[in-house]
Write a structure and sequence with these properties.
- There is one protein chain.
- By secondary structure, this protein is of the alpha+beta class.
- The protein folds into 2 domains: 20-140, L,D-transpeptidase catalytic domain-like (Beta Barrel), CATH 2.40.440.10; 158-222, no CATH class.
- The protein has 5 helices and 11 strands, in the order αββββββββαβαααββ.
- A hairpin with a 2-residue loop joins strand 2 (34-39) and strand 3 (42-48).
């Protein structure tokens, strides 16, 4: 009898000490822009989401939702509709449905986690079933670099510029004047020469044929 009572007390103590497992777990991977919903440890939904874009990153961490609003409108962002809002931070971050469903799968929000309206309705019903106290929201990962993000252009060296101009000149895309005007100033000084005009020779920028430099003859009439 005493041994049985001791076992019961030990089991109760272990149950009390073990961390409570959320009945509903909402995991958001910002790197993949994906939400995984697990019910009692079993994955039941995987959905694309939109988290905060650059400058408005959704904070990582583990949270417990504390407020739900069926038809919420953002006071901060021009009364934007936020159907099925589930708030999980005290500074206004929420999971909610969006009318901008074409951008799901990439960061596009001002910090909230956006879902399609149909998926947000499903999540809302799951949360009502399990209660906010038994739900956890976990965010991890980083904002991905999207394909339409502006690329940082590498500065071209004078040699690269001249090589590209040479290619365009050889292909007939530009003429002598355009070629020379686009050269770096140092190269322009090296490609000055005499050119024949209807009224006689004149000292001018030119490059014809390509990669052949001429030393200008003495100035006429002692100039």
């Amino acid at each position: 009898m005493r041994l049985r009572r001791l076992c019961l007390l030990l089991a109760a103590a272990l149950a009390f000490a073990a961390p409570a497992r959320a009945a509903l777990l909402i995991e958001i991977d910002k790197s993949a822009q994906q939400m995984t919903v697990s019910e009692d440890g079993e994955t039941i939904h995987v959905w694309p989401v939109s988290t905060g874009k650059n400058g408005y990153d959704t904070p990582s961490g583990e949270y417990k939702p504390f407020r739900m609003e069926k038809d919420h409108f953002s006071r901060e962002w021009d009364d934007a509709p936020m159907p099925n809002s589930i708030f999980f931070t005290q500074i206004g971050h929420a999971i909610h449905g969006t009318f901008d469903e074409k951008n799901l799968g990439k960061p596009a929000s001002h910090g909230c986690v956006r879902l399609s309206r149909a998926n947000s309705e499903t999540l809302w019903r799951l949360l009502r079933k399990h209660k906010m106290a038994n739900t956890r929201v976990v965010l991890n990962g980083q904002i991905p670099v999207t394909a339409d993000a502006p690329a940082v252009a590498r500065r071209q060296s004078p040699r690269d510029i001249e090589r590209d101009l040479q290619r365009r000149y050889d292909a007939g895309e530009i003429d002598d004047d355009e070629f020379t005007a686009a050269l770096p100033p140092r190269r322009q000084r090296q490609t000055r020469g005499w050119r024949e005009y209807n009224d006689g020779p004149r000292y001018y920028y030119y490059r014809d044929p390509p990669r052949r430099y001429y030393r200008p003859p003495p100035f006429p009439f002692g100039w």
